[in-house]
Amino acid sequence: MTPHTYQTTVTWPAGDGPGTTDYRSYSRNHAIVAGTKPEIPASSDPTFRGDRDRYNPEELLLASLSSCHMLWYLHLCAVNGIVVRKYRDRAVGRMVTQADGAGQFVRAELRPVVAISASSDPARALALHQDAHRLCFIARSVNFEVEVVPEVGSVASEDNDDE
């Protein structure tokens, strides 16, 4: 096993407000930074008094699952002779909350739609999603079901990326 370490910094500026004097008094807005990368403006979900114009932890978790799957899938396609021309995933996650406010994800569904070159094998391209799911670091790390429901189609020509 080879260990890998990741670091992020989450900063919450209390600002000039009253801080956490009560549940309704404080901003949920915060920033996420990793090294010298651009800052990610974050907040809680609007349901929990957050800013709808900022990413929330639930969206970021779902995006991590989707991104990890895509990166593994593209790798597997590249080493298996499948030419991917386009990839889009509109993932959906389901979280439930309890009466005491605790919550957890119970399911995520990745819905990748992939366009491959006409010379690529659609059946193999579809099957590689199973391998990508099995190898995905994030999917292997969560304790809820992650289902992958892929679609694979071919582009009309090798030179046409817009289809």
Task: Write up this protein.
By secondary structure, the protein is α/β, with parallel strands linked by helices. It has 2 domains: 1-55, no CATH class; 57-154, K homology (KH) domain (GMP Synthetase, Chain A, domain 3, 2-Layer Sandwich). 23% of the residues lie in helices and 26% in strands. It contains 2 helices and 9 strands; from the N terminus they run βββαββββαββ. The protein has helices spanning 57-79, 122-135; strands at 9-11, 30-33, 40-42, 84-89, 92-97, 103-110, 112-116, 145-148, 151-154. The protein has a 3-stranded antiparallel β-sheet with strand order 1-2-3, with no helix packed on it. Strands 4-7-9 form a 3-stranded mixed β-sheet, covered by helices on one side. It has a 3-stranded mixed β-sheet with strand order 5-6-8. β2 (30-33) and β3 form a beta hairpin. α1 crosses α2 (122-135). The longest helix has 23 residues, at 57-79. The radius of gyration is 20 Å and the shape is elongated. The N and C termini lie far apart (42 Å). 20% of the residues are buried.
Q: Can you tell me the CATH architecture of the largest domain?
A: 2-Layer Sandwich
CATH homologous superfamily name of the largest domain?
K homology (KH) domain
Average pLDDT works out at 92
CATH fold assignment of the largest domain: GMP Synthetase, Chain A, domain 3
Q: Could you tell me the radius of gyration in angstroms?
A: 20 Å
Poorly predicted ranges: none
The biggest beta sheet reads: 3 strands, antiparallel
Q: What percent of residues are in strands?
A: 25-35%
| CA(first)-CA(last) distance | 42 Å
Which strand order do you get reading across the main beta sheet? 1-2-3
- CATH class identity of the largest domain: Alpha Beta
Which outline best applies? elongated
Helix content: 10-25%
Number of structural domains: 2
Strand-and-helix sequence, N→C? EEEHEEEEHEE
- Number of helical stretches of at least 4 residues: 2
Classify the secondary structure makeup into a structural class.
alpha/beta
Q: Please report the total strand number as a whole number.
A: 9
